[in-house]
Amino acid sequence: MSYDIDGDNGKISLRNYVFQRLLYFLCVKHVQHLFLNKNLVQALRTTKNHLAKLDYLGVKTIGDFLQFYPRTYLDRSVFNTVSNLMANEIATLKGTISSLTQSKSQFGKMLIQALFTDSTGSIEVIWFNQPYLLRMFRPGMEVILSGPVKYRMGRPNLVSPEFEFLRDEQVHTARIIPVYHETEGISSKWMREKIKPLLEYADYFQEYLPRQILESERLLPLNEAIKQIHFPENMESLRRARERLGFDELFIIQLLALIRKKKWHEGAENFYKKIEHESEVSDYFIRNLPFELTGAQKRSLFEILEDVKKPVPMLRLLQGDVGSGKTIVAAAALYSAVKAGYQGALMVPTEVLARQHFDNFKKLFEPHGIRVEILVGSLKEKEKRNVSENISLGLIDIIIGTHALIQEYIGFKNLGLAVIDEQHRFGVKQRDILKKHGFPHLLNMSATPIPRSLAMTLYGDQDLSLIDEMPPGRQKIMTRIVPDSKRRDAYGWIQEQIRQGRQVYVICPLIDESDFLEVKSAIQESEYLARDVFPEFKIGLMHGKLRPRDKEQVMKDFNEGNIQVLVSTSVVEVGIDVSNATIMMIEGAERFGLSQLHQFRGRVGRGQHQSYCFLFTKAYNQDSVMRLESLVKHHDGFKLAEIDLQIRGPGEIYGVRQSGIPDLKMASISDSGLMKRARTQAENILFTDPNFMQHPELLKKLEKYFMDEP
Ligand code: ADP
Ligand code: MG
């Protein structure tokens, strides 16, 4: 089906046109909606059990199902013959099956043996523990088998092959076969059976890429790409399907980034905040620090100071591992802003962090005669009013605070530079509110080191500065994986450390992103530890549902050493700084991404004592253990993010998921060629049709993302 209503070459008559228009309207606007959004129940005729599992995978409608793309493929399109088999190859054979027998192997497994014959000869086939095969196969039946060839006693065998009866169109053999991400109870085979008959629905997907892009980039139409991505005719059509769907992802991401960037600059013309002076100004500040900046810090600061001179508001991301020293770079930039006659603001996600920065900044800035204040939700009304008044009068130079900072009622006298710490905790919308405060320059900071290529893809709307070097003399944190069998020993050892005066963090497992369950598990864990494991010590509890005042108290107690063990959910991990805490215990470690585990680990190793990180895990499967082992081996956040990117994809990198960016299912971050094409086309279209008047379908697609934006 095609929805081409332009009437190529004017061949279509008016009546035809009206008719097609109607059809278009019916098909696209309604049928698409009806069909693609149709519940899977009728379409699949499957059990509730399977539906629940699909639901878990995020598949609720036919449209979702068709966009559940294969993970990889097996090429079973080329047939072998019995006479040409080689040991250990995966062979696909077409022929008949006969002489089925059942027996027991020497290890007590149930064995099914059969003889398979094609035009070139016969071979023995073996299956283990699949008695139902006896009922399925009748001697003489035509089948296609695909499986590994093993030699036994000098003769080739086909071991546990996948099989499929000959039918009009093969689904599991005799072609390039899709392999899906499996969960328990949903196999690739099941997926293939179910998706194949749904493929025709692909025609109800609405093409949203402009025609000229499809043509100049030689991309497959959307419906065709979706069909080919599941059941490709050949390797070339698979390549083209991947290209098309990958292009889409990158194109949308680039468009969103460019639109955001444009929006950021919109209306700023009359608000030129020029932060410029001789470099001696920031040099003076830096010379007064008790340490020398690292090369990466100097470079980043230079990039920032170059940027804030320009007549457009800066939008820059400063990335660096935990402890790489981002704060001081931001402080130097703020110092410059104040010396140029502006106010500065530092916004952080939690009150705990705000207070830490406040104490730190007071020490840094007061000797320079710069006035620093704090504004957080838990201040008394009167204090808040007082502070906000002083902000608007310009009596405060640098204000530190939480979200409270960007409330409507706050009016800056002359905000020149805003810094947002842990930017992924804030949404794009919150960032845009800043514009109301006179278009300040904006420096975002993120302690999630992600590879530059990924950062440029995901944060294409921001310029990037990387601190990829640690200050000298940082200790390595000894990291150990602790299986259940070693748990008791580990507890004993930790107890000894606490007796010697050290303190401990305990992070509770991530529970299906449910705050409620997570809090509950943290409460239980703290009770358990207090009762059964560390009865002689004080245990504290920290989670997102505590009142700010209580959080404050717990942090204070931990800081002052009144609490020895701090149990916490995974949501409050940022920015706590207690140098006497030297042990980080993480429960259910296999559930976290490497970069998030690395974040947790960064909480310790801040004092003069050797620090340790224990990864408690019940996972025995090879992959999980190997993943955790990379934490034992690597201490560089960029490296770990790279590994996460390879094993689990960009969505697993801590902080990326929350960033309101579409998932990358198909595109590869490393495909810089495709990336450039997408970027160029995105720039083109924004230039030629900035409001998408000519491209309503594309606009609709984009609007969805802007609506979902955090
Ligand atoms: P993060 O990047 O995680 O925000 P911080 O800015 O909090 O890191 O810095 C961590 C610690 O390192 C702070 O105590 C800071 O004073 C110190 N620090 C920062 N830069 C340097 C440096 N160049 N040399 C030595 N110590 C530094
Ligand atoms: Mg920090």
In the CATH hierarchy, the third-tier topology of the domain at 268-467 is known as Rossmann fold
Report Rg: 31 Å
Architecture of the domain at 268-467, CATH level 2?
A: 3-Layer(aba) Sandwich
Q: In CATH's first tier, which class of the domain at 268-467 applies?
A: Alpha Beta
Largest sheet: 7 strands, parallel
CATH superfamily annotation of the domain at 268-467? P-loop containing nucleotide triphosphate hydrolases
- Number of helical elements: 24
Shape annotation: globular
Q: pLDDT under 50 segments (min length 5)?
A: 1-14
Draw up the topology in text.
Elements: H1 14-36, H2 40-44, H3 48-56, H4 62-66, E1 72-75, E2 90-104, E3 110-118, E4 121-128, H5 132-136, E5 141-152, E6 155-159, E7 162-165, E8 176-179, H6 188-198, H7 211-216, H8 222-230, H9 235-265, H10 280-287, H11 295-307, E9 315-320, H12 326-339, E10 343-347, H13 351-365, E11 372-375, H14 381-393, E12 398-401, E13 415-420, H15 428-433, E14 441-446, H16 452-458, E15 463-467, E16 478-483, H17 487-499, E17 503-507, H18 515-533, E18 539-542, H19 548-559, E19 565-568, E20 581-586, H20 594-601, E21 612-617, H21 622-633, H22 637-648, H23 672-688, H24 696-708
Parallel strand pairs: 4-6, 9-14, 9-15, 10-12, 10-13, 11-12, 13-14, 16-21, 17-19, 17-20, 18-19, 20-21
Antiparallel strand pairs: 1-8, 2-3, 2-5, 3-4, 5-6, 5-7
Helix pairs in contact: 8-9, 9-23, 10-12, 11-12, 20-22
The protein binds adenosine-5'-diphosphate and magnesium ion.
